[in-house]
């Protein structure tokens, strides 16, 4: 199967895009409250994201919000992702030089002992919109939509939620859901799963995503706010990564002799629990988050997040917000380092390390400030992310050599934001 510079990876970009969007949204300042008349607010953010010797992302984003005196608000958000770099193909390193030939005839040479990589580049355009409206004194509603397009992936979705305030507005219940209709159309065609790359279709592959959530937030005191969210997501359709491969190794020498394509189930149910807390000190605010996630692929994860907003000035609104995040993930049940030649093939298999054991530690800080007496707010966030995979047993698939399949990966991200209203 070809893995050259023209090869794209939709799931790589999806995950990186989500990471980039999450980082960027951390920098979008809180929307200003409407006064006697409508207010228009512009939030502009630019993300610079770089993985050590791998993927780079440049993502500018513009969000326009219109707030009305009656509590209604409309917003539209436009984003562009420019993604370039390389990602592990899933194939095993070898003690010998590996040479593969792509469908375009390009010869790829992988040095002995090096992790096989695939190069890619793409641009993604996305649009999101939302309408927020107060239905009564205690009820509010939101309805929104989403569209994004890239070279081999398209997503179209809608979402909505309803909130109700109870017990003198000390308790808020929120219910919501969404639906996405996506299409995956791999460059070069869709390969058969667990095959040598045989193309079985040149048509788009449908994918449906449905999600539901219920949440509650509770004011525990004048300074303490606590929240809990429960969400379920159901994915159906084409969930395989068409550009990832799995090495087949010789049972005697342990040397990779061939490779097969990735194959994953066509359904995945996800569940997550999120606990959040915000406590207002005399001037500063402490934020704590914990999220537990599991799915029907037997992958589980835990996320701990801590932020401390420290006000640097009593009048000018300057603040510093340090951030610490820890993430731990267990592997999917069909994750494997490789397959042994001659053994029966499993129903599903992937060597994608993003579905393997994974740990990340994030350290960062945000600086928010105004220039002179201008009410416009600038924010700058810098993040350092350390990613560590698993040192898989060398005898897991009869491999005789010792290779570090998931070396520590350093990632740096900077988000610059600017917000103003009139």
What does the model show?
With 422 residues, this protein is mainly beta. The chain has one helix at residues 10-25; strands spanning 39-51, 56-67, 73-88, 98-101, 107-110, 117-134, 139-150, 153-166, 171-184, 190-191, 199-201, 205-219, 224-237, 245-249, 256-261, 267-280, 285-295, 300-311, 319-329, 339-340, 358-369, 377-388, 409-421. It has one domain (10-415): Porin (Beta Barrel), CATH 2.40.160. Helix content is 4%, strand content 57%. The chain has a 16-stranded antiparallel barrel with strand order 1-2-3-6-7-8-9-12-13-16-17-18-19-21-22-23. A three-stranded mixed β-sheet has the order 15-14-20, with no helix packed on it. It has a two-stranded antiparallel ribbon with strand order 4-5. A hairpin with a 4-residue loop joins strand 16 (267-280) and strand 17 (285-295). It is globular.
